[in-house]
Design a protein that fits this description.
The complex is a heterodimer of chains A (168) and B (188).
Chain A: H1 2-19, E1 22-27, E2 49-51, E3 56-62, H2 65-70, E4 75-86, E5 92-97, E6 102-103, E7 112-113, E8 119-121, E9 126-132, E10 135-145, E11 155-166
Chain B: H1 3-23, E1 28-36, E2 40-46, E3 55-58, E4 68-71, E5 77-84, E6 92-99, E7 107-113, E8 121-122, E9 126-127, E10 131-132, E11 138-144, E12 147-148, E13 157-165, E14 180-187
Antiparallel strand pairs in B: 2-5, 3-4, 5-12, 5-13, 6-11, 6-14, 7-10, 7-13, 8-12, 9-11
Classes of the chains: A mainly beta (168), B mainly beta (188).
Chain lengths: 168, 188
């Protein structure tokens, strides 16, 4: 009987554990392919600074049914880093939050702060912004710096990783 | 200690650990960043308002002496270029040739590029020495890699033209001979 109780308890807690995660969802992609990489005069370099021309939205939400119902002011924070696939040391990426997004239930004021000026994205995680409750469609700008013809004609790729943590 | 009690203690400890870990549980979202630097091969001549070079050949003041060659334009021409190469290309060169017209008989036109000057970046080219311009392209600057010279006068390589009479028998009086010098940046 005791064994049964323990196993049942473990299973129940396992379900609770699985349901407690916050998640980040990203919509859109980064596109730097516009005017920035065209040259009108011989002798010039490509523009060393370019902001993504397409919209990127980040949503922070919870999988946890009980959090959704009973813990609406759950605090969280998002940290950011990048994971390089084919990158160059002279390339810099910067990211900012260009808006506040919307409350997921559309039922009140959005509580979000920080991250509203460009900050460098490095290979180590850095704090980006924080908020309360579920917030969706947070607009994000990504800026590329340091691109140059001296890097040669090739493709560069990295992933910007946004991670949400409980904010204690 | 009873085996069941030990199991209970272990399970409770494990649950506490899981619960704490779960407080910090996270999920990631990724933004893929993908872009390409295009292949670029551009060359031009500056200052571009007037890129003409004029020479005149006038008789000497004393009979029996060779005619005098005068360069009548003062402006220095500069060659600018931008280059980014595909990974399978080692280097590029700039070649020069006479196009749209021809040199008058009995004279040779030489061209030499200076060493690079300016605040461009990358693997800039090296002058190939003085070349005798003709209808066939000849290398003027070689060893160009991924680079840019910067735009405008005083950036890149200055161009030094010189005219020489090589056959007096072929010199004829002529009002003016015009021709174009064509510069091409090309893969090696």
């Amino acid at each position: 009987m005791a064994k049964f109780q323990l196993i049942a308890g473990l299973i129940l807690l396992g379900f609770c554990a699985a349901a407690q995660g916050l998640k980040v969802e990203v919509e859109g992609n980064v596109n730097f392919m516009g005017q920035a990489f065209t040259i009108s005069e011989a002798g010039e370099n490509i523009s060393s600074s370019s902001t993504s021309e397409t919209a990127i939205y980040v949503s922070v939400s919870s999988n946890d049914y009980w959090d959704k119902k009973k813990n609406k002011n759950k605090k969280w924070q998002v940290v950011v880093h990048k994971s390089d696939i084919n990158w160059h040391n002279n390339l810099l990426l910067e990211i900012q939050r260009s808006g506040s997004g919307q409350n997921a239930g559309n039922n009140g004021r959005v509580n979000i702060s920080d991250g509203n000026s460009f900050q460098e994205v490095t290979n180590t995680p850095n704090y980006f912004f924080k908020g309360k409750d579920e917030i969706v469609y947070i607009p994000i700008d990504v800026k590329l710096l340091g691109a140059s013809l001296t890097m040669g004609a090739k493709q560069f790729e990295t992933n910007i990783v946004l991670t949400v943590y409980d904010d204690w | 200690m009873d085996r069941l009690v030990r199991l209970k203690i272990f399970c409770i400890a494990a649950l506490l650990f899981i619960t704490l870990a779960v407080r910090a549980q996270w999920e990631e979202g990724e933004i893929n960043v993908l872009f390409s630097i295009p292949e670029v091969a551009l060359v031009d001549i500056e200052p571009s308002m007037n890129n003409s070079v004029h020479f005149s050949i006038v008789p000497s003041e004393e009979s029996g002496k060779s005619p005098i060659i005068k360069k009548t334009t003062e402006e220095v021409l500069w060659i600018n270029y931008s280059s980014s190469m595909a990974e399978n290309v080692n280097s590029r060169k700039i070649v020069a040739e006479i196009a749209n017209g021809q040199l008058p008989g009995g004279v040779q036109l030489f061209l030499e590029a200076s060493v690079y000057n300016g605040n461009g970046e990358g693997t800039l080219g090296q002058p190939s020495g003085k070349i005798n311009l003709g209808p066939q392209p000849k290398p003027l600057i070689s060893g160009i890699g991924n680079c840019y010279t910067n735009d405008g006068a005083n950036n890149g390589h200055s161009l030094n033209f010189s005219l020489k009479i090589n056959d007096y028998a072929e010199i004829r009086s002529k009002e003016e001979a015009q021709f174009t010098i064509l510069y091409t940046i090309t893969d090696n």
